[in-house]
Specification:
- The protein is of the alpha+beta class and 441 residues long.
- The chain is built from 14 helices and five strands.
- The chain has a five-stranded mixed beta sheet, covered by helices on one side.
- A hairpin with a 2-residue loop joins strand 2 and strand 3.
- Helix 5 packs antiparallel against helix 6.
- It is rod-shaped.
- The two termini are 74 Å apart.
Length: 441
């Protein structure tokens, strides 16, 4: 805030100083012209300069008028920021054009106004490429917009010719004042640019520090999210364990008590014993249903009823019937005697791959291939769907990757080559899972 206030104060000082310089040149030229006419020395003056001067009022009106417009445009940008980039460039080009007009209206006596415009545009425009363009243009305008350089190409009268009307002492005063104001303008420009680039360097350092703090905060949030996920999983497992424990405890207690009662009544009241045994059987069925409902979230029911190979064939067969998709299933891995967590991972991979192919890729032909090399089982899923225009890892793929990471597996996916000969030109998923060999395999 303090730096910005200092920049504003320097900009106001430069505007005030340049206004004073323009007024100085205009006042000297206009006053001297009228004094020459009043002293009846116009013939001698015209003979010495060999040029016909402009009307005296033109220089102050044109230069100060253009300067007032430049001042308005410059401060308009501050109070009404422009977000549309082409319009910002147009406003900057307008300021450069006004600067050129001021230099020309002053008969090229003074080009320091280019430094004022340069400081303003460098502060306003953040694009380094545009800044470089402005620096080149306005530096050339400042360097070559001098009467001594363009003298051969203009019909203007030299400023020294007007000063020649006065005695040497007054000439020295005017020349010294001119040099003082021009040098002061250059000093203010240099101070402004130093302060501007220093403040931007500090701002960049502050932004880098904020980015580092933000990255640290993101890392902390990521760690917190991981810990929360683990805690959530632990709570869910504990809840399921408690639910299973309570269900089994209640059910088994009832079964034991009912069976004991049935045995006790078997000889004395066979019919009542039969009813008790029927109640025990129904209680066992209800308990089994509750247990299955509790563990369904932990393990697919198909894997509970059958092996991995049978579960995959059953799932793929049902998927064919429900979706009408043509699914080519090749199981070339032989007998897969895997641990339960490995079976769960491979089963869910195939399940998610088939679902994504039909739901997102609109595929009607899918290839599922399971192979094994040593202790590495590979699952390859390909389809002829539309693929994915923008590869983003959604919930399904992210969950699949997390499940595989816990087992040391790998996941790769992407769009297939559109020139493939086998017709599978949509999406592919490839999973590699190192398995733990069971004893006796």
């Amino acid at each position: 805030m303090k730096t910005e206030r200092n920049l504003t104060n320097l900009a106001v000082a430069m505007f005030a100083l340049n206004l004073s310089i323009l007024s100085f040149y205009s006042l000297i030229c206009v006053t001297t012209t009228f004094r020459i006419c009043d002293s009846l020395r116009a013939h001698d003056f015209l003979t010495s300069v060999r040029q016909i001067p402009r009307y005296p009022w033109q220089m102050p009106v044109q230069s100060l008028g253009l300067y007032a417009v430049l001042f308005g445009v410059s401060f308009f940008k501050i109070f009404r920021p422009i977000e549309y980039f082409p319009l910002r460039v147009f406003v900057c080009a307008a300021e450069i054009a006004l600067c050129a007009g001021i230099i020309v209206s002053l008969n090229f006596y003074y080009s320091g106004v280019a430094l004022l415009v340069l400081a303003d545009l460098v502060h306003y425009m953040r694009s380094n490429r545009m800044r470089l363009c402005f620096i080149v243009i306005l530096s050339l305008m400042f360097a070559f917009g001098r009467y001594e350089i363009v003298e051969q190409f203009t019909k203007s009268i030299a400023f020294d010719a007007y000063l020649g009307y006065y005695n040497p002492m007054i000439q020295s005063c005017f020349t010294g004042l001119e040099s003082l104001m021009v040098c002061l303008n250059i000093i203010l420009f240099v101070l402004y640019m130093i302060l501007l680039f220093t403040s931007q360097k500090e701002e960049n350092a502050r932004i880098r520090k904020l980015n580092e703090q933000l990255n640290q905060a993101n890392d902390q949030l990521r760690d917190y999210a991981v810990n929360m996920e683990r805690m959530t999983q632990m709570r869910e497992r504990n809840r399921l364990a408690r639910e299973i424990h309570d269900t089994l405890g209640h059910t088994l207690t009832g079964i034991i008590m009912g069976a004991d009662a049935g045995l006790a009544l078997m000889d004395v009241a066979p019919e009542e014993s039969r009813k008790r045994i029927q109640v025990v059987a129904q209680s066992a069925r209800d308990g089994l249903t509750d247990v299955r409902r509790s563990i369904k979230a932990l393990r697919p029911d198909a894997l509970e009823r059958s092996s991995l190979a049978e579960a995959l064939e059953g799932m793929i067969g049902n998927f064919r019937l429900t979706t009408s998709a043509q699914i080519a299933y090749d199981q070339e891995a032989g007998k897969l005697n895997l641990d339960s967590d490995e079976e769960d991972a491979l089963y869910r991979v195939v399940q998610e791959g088939l679902t994504n192919a039909v739901r997102h890729g609109r595929a009607d032909r899918i290839s599922v291939r399971v192979t094994r090399t040593g202790d590495l089982v590979t699952v390859s899923i390909r389809d002829n769907g539309t693929g994915c225009a923008k590869l983003e890892e959604g919930f399904g793929l992210r969950h699949m990757r997390e499940r595989l990471n816990m087992l040391g597996g790998t996941l790769s996916y992407g769009n297939l080559d559109s020139d493939a000969q086998d017709g599978y030109t949509g999406f592919f998923i490839t999973v590699g899972l190192p398995i733990r060999n069971k004893k006796g395999e």
